[in-house]
């Protein structure tokens, strides 16, 4: 059975715990911007329940045009106001550079991507930059923007410094 077939089959189990219909606006008025890392179960590690928060994920949890698009919709249409960033230790984006990834893609496919990977070395500095980008976006309505770093080795979440 393929991985996707297994997921479709697993939905039967989910139906037994499905909490029922909920409002589209997140109950806790929070948007989470996080890395796509497979070791970060965000609802569990942040104490969130279904319906509590928007979760916007990408490689690195970086603030891109599309992150800002999603945050704008989250805030203007669906009432969120707090933004929490969740970056983490041992991130894939710390294991490459923008040039190395572009070179790899070009060698493999013959095409150089038009975007940069937004690789980083210092996770706290990257969180600070993401906070700065969100706070300086004039069309957002955020009342609180904070950043965190999750340790994938221990499960501990700390506020970025
Ligand atoms: Zn990551």
Brief summary:
By secondary structure, this protein is of the alpha/beta class.
What does this structure look like?
Helix content is 35%, strand content 18%. The chain has 161 residues and is α/β, with parallel strands linked by helices. The chain has one domain (22-159): 3-Layer(aba) Sandwich (Beta-carbonic Anhydrase, Chain A). It has a five-stranded mixed beta sheet with strand order 2-1-3-4-5, with helices on one face. A hairpin with a 6-residue loop joins strand 4 (144-150) and strand 5 (157-159). The longest helix has 15 residues, at 3-17. The radius of gyration is 17 Å and the shape is globular. It starts with a helix and ends with a strand. The mean pLDDT is 96. The site of zinc ion has 7 residues, from loops. Residues 35, 37, 60, 88, 91-93 line the site of zinc ion (ZN).
How are the SSEs placed, and which strands pair?
Elements: H1 3-17, E1 30-35, H2 42-46, E2 53-58, H3 65-76, E3 82-88, H4 98-109, H5 123-135, E4 144-150, E5 157-159
Parallel strand pairs: 1-2, 1-3, 3-4
Antiparallel strand pairs: 4-5
Zinc ion (ZN) is lined by residues 35, 37, 60, 88, 91-93.
**Name given to the CATH architecture:** 3-Layer(aba) Sandwich
Strand order of the largest sheet: 2-1-3-4-5
Tell me the strand percentage band.
Answer: 15-25%
Helicity, as a percent range:
25-40%
The overall pLDDT, averaged over residues, is 96
Order of helices and strands: HEHEHEHHEE
Tally the beta strands.
5
Quick one: biggest sheet? 5 strands, mixed
């Amino acid at each position: 059975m393929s991985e996707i077939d297994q997921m479709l089959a697993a939905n039967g189990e989910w139906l037994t715990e499905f909490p029922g219909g909920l409002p589209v606006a997140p109950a806790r008025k929070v948007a989470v911007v996080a890395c796509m890392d497979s070791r970060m179960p965000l609802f569990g590690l942040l104490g969130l329940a279904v319906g509590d928060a928007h979760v916007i994920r990408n490689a690195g949890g970086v603030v891109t045009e599309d992150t800002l698009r999603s945050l704008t919709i989250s805030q203007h249409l669906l009432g969120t106001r707090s933004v929490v960033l969740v970056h983490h230790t041992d991130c894939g984006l710390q294991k490459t550079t923008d040039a190395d990834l572009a070179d790899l893609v070009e060698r493999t496919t013959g095409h150089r991507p038009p975007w940069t990977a937004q690789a980083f070395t210092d996770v706290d500095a990257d969180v600070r930059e993401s906070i700065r980008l969100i706070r300086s976006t004039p069309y957002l309505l955020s009342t609180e923007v904070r950043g965190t770093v999750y340790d994938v080795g221990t499960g501990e979440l700390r506020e970025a410094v």
